[in-house]
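Dear colleagues,

For the upcoming journal club I promised to circulate an example of a predicted protein-ligand complex. I picked one with glutathione because it came up in last month's discussion. The inputs are reproduced below in full, followed by the predicted structure.
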Amino acid sequence: MSNSKPIFAYYDMRGLGYPIKLELAYLGIDYVDKRYPITQAGLDQYRSDKANLGLDFPNVPYWKHGDINLTETRAILKYIAREEGGGKLMPTDRVGLANAEMLEGVLWDVWWFLINRCYRDTDDVIEELGESPAKFEMLDKFLRNKEWLLGDKISYVDFMLYEILYQYNVYDSEYLGPYGALLKLKANFEGLPAIKKFMASPEYMAAPCYHPLYMRYKAVGLTC
Ligand SMILES: N[C@@H](CCC(=O)N[C@@H](CS)C(=O)NCC(=O)O)C(=O)O
């Protein structure tokens, strides 16, 4: 692996990238934090860089380190969970890994209900967002009596879940009210010393979550 610092690049917003940033903060990884401004100039800059980044599937977020040139949010999230910090964010037991990958799919769906609601703002995506409470109910039940989704050890799926809870809470501060176990996880996550430190640092970004030039539905705090 190269001696130079890894690069994490994304738009200057939380978006899909924040669970990865939270992992990096939790693990104490030093990296180059490349942010494309969320302006037309920032989009133009990304578009002109895009083909020259040495990425097989150019996109943001991306992660570059030595021989690794990675895109796809979940691939990056899991790569860091496995390869950095002694692999401590990746479960290794059969049941833990199976559950993590199941949860990852569920979480991704719930996340996209909200992203699409803001990105497209059509009747069908507004209707689809109505599926989230049932998913949160199941997640809340799954989590009950456990500290983290997989038990007493935090893993990459908790970073995804945290960010989804954060973004739903910004969208509507009442949304998570019925889900006590999820709210407890959110508070516990924010109480982790490394996360607390990150949240108090100048690098931390409370908003925006979504790109103002792409989103049709502009929710205050989420998009602008
Ligand atoms: N499947 C990709 C989707 C990434 C994606 O949709 N990126 C958005 C920002 S959230 C983008 O603007 N990508 C730029 C592009 O398509 O070139 C992932 O999971 O990372």
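Two points we might discuss: The mean pLDDT is 96. The first strand starts at residue 7 and ends at 11.

See you all on Thursday,
B. R.
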